[in-house]
Amino acid sequence: MNEQGQREVEEAMKGVESVLQSHIPPFRKLPYCSKCAYKDFCYAGEEEEGEV
Ligand code: SF4
């Protein structure tokens, strides 16, 4: 990776950190979540219905 690429990665990482520091709304299950490719990320740390 050249210096420009490294700077772009560092800027992208700052953007990620900024998003993580911002307000994150509470998780809300949507009707189409069960077929969504991001389900495992969105459901991380959440209890599935029926879990105790
Ligand atoms: S990204 Fe997918 S799993 Fe997450 S809330 Fe949206 S539809 Fe549901």
Describe this structure in words.
The protein has two helices and no strands. With 52 residues, the chain is mainly alpha-helical. It has one domain (3-42). The radius of gyration is 16 Å and the shape is elongated. It starts with a helix and ends in a 10-residue tail after the last helix. It binds iron/sulfur cluster (SF4).
Summarize the structure.
This protein is mainly alpha-helical and 52 residues long.
The helicity comes to 40-55%
The chain-level mean pLDDT equals 86
Number of strands: 0
Shape: elongated
User: What string gives the helices and strands in order?
Assistant: HH
User: What does the main sheet amount to?
Assistant: none
Kindly report how far apart the N and C termini lie: 47 Å
Beta percentage is under 5%
- Radius of gyration, CA atoms, in whole angstroms: 16 Å
* Structural domains: how many: 1
* Structural class by sheet pairing and helices: mainly alpha
Uncertain spans, ≥5 residues at pLDDT below 50?
Answer: none
Associated small molecules: iron/sulfur cluster
Q: Helical element count?
A: 2
Key words describing this protein structure:
single chain; mainly alpha; binds iron/sulfur cluster
